[in-house]
Specification:
This protein is 52% helix and 3% strand. By secondary structure, the chain is an all-alpha fold. The chain has a domain of 161 residues. Helix 3 packs across helix 9 and helix 3 crosses helix 10. The longest helix has 25 residues. The termini are far apart.
Length: 234
């Protein structure tokens, strides 16, 4: 009888040790499986609501940029992205970034590459801004239209007077009108996609909910100077 009692006691002890409750209290449980004190689960609906407001703001800023018709000059032949030109004119995407971070921080975000293409950006300050913009990366890429320069040696008609800058502005303006149509047409689907992308970065999502849009912005050491634009023709 004592032997049976001892065997039963050992069996009961082993079952308790293998139970889920016992494992949860085990000091050897991997840290990754332990609950993090103070951790807050992100509410996707709340993140989406904040992004929806951001999307409206950024979208309106894009329309204001388009209607201003002040676009950077591409001083190279052919098509080329120009983040900022010699006169200090920002491209559409750089302008949108500058509205949140300021002009100098927006310029620094290009990391010295004035021909930066946002289609190639996967990480860093600009990638973070895109995630917080309420737009998808594809939409921001469609806004960043490369400038065109016909180059030297192009025969221009004498009459009527041909101004290549006017032609370029009209070309860009027309593209921006099409971009507006695309953004409006896929508004809700794109907002969902932008929300999903941001939810994969809970650190940034929490910054958005806290109202902090400059967490990733580069900090300039001193103001930047730009060449003065040429005087108007008379």
């Amino acid at each position: 009888m004592p032997g049976r009692f001892l065997s039963a006691l050992l069996l009961a002890s082993s079952l308790v040790a293998c139970s889920p409750a016992a494992n949860q209290l085990s000091p050897t449980r991997p840290a990754a499986l332990r609950p993090t004190p103070g951790a807050v689960t992100l509410d996707r609906a709340a993140v989406r609501a904040e992004l929806a407001q951001r999307r409206e703001i950024v979208f309106q800023r894009f329309l204001d940029y388009r209607e201003g018709r002040v676009y950077p000059v591409n001083d190279r032949t052919g098509f080329e992205h120009v983040w900022i030109d010699a006169s200090g004119n920002l491209c559409a995407a750089a302008t949108l970034v500058s509205k949140d971070w300021g002009r100098d921080s927006a310029v620094l975000a290009a990391n010295g590459n004035n021909n930066v293409a946002l289609a190639d950006i996967r990480e860093g300050a600009l990638a973070d801004w895109i995630l917080l913009s309420g737009l998808t990366q594809h939409e921001v890429v469609s806004i960043q239209v490369p400038g065109f320069n016909a180059g030297v040696g192009v025969v221009l008609p004498v009459e009527p007077v041909f101004d290549p800058r006017v032609t370029e502005i009209e070309r860009l303006y027309g593209i921006y009108v099409d971009v507006e149509r695309q953004l409006r047409g896929l508004w809700e689907l794109s907002l969902d996609a932008a929300t999903d992308a941001l939810m994969d970065r809970p650190d940034l999502a929490r910054e958005l909910l806290a109202g902090n849009l400059t967490a990733s912005a580069p900090v300039p050491s001193q103001p930047m100077a730009f060449a003065q634009p040429p005087p108007p023709r008379r």
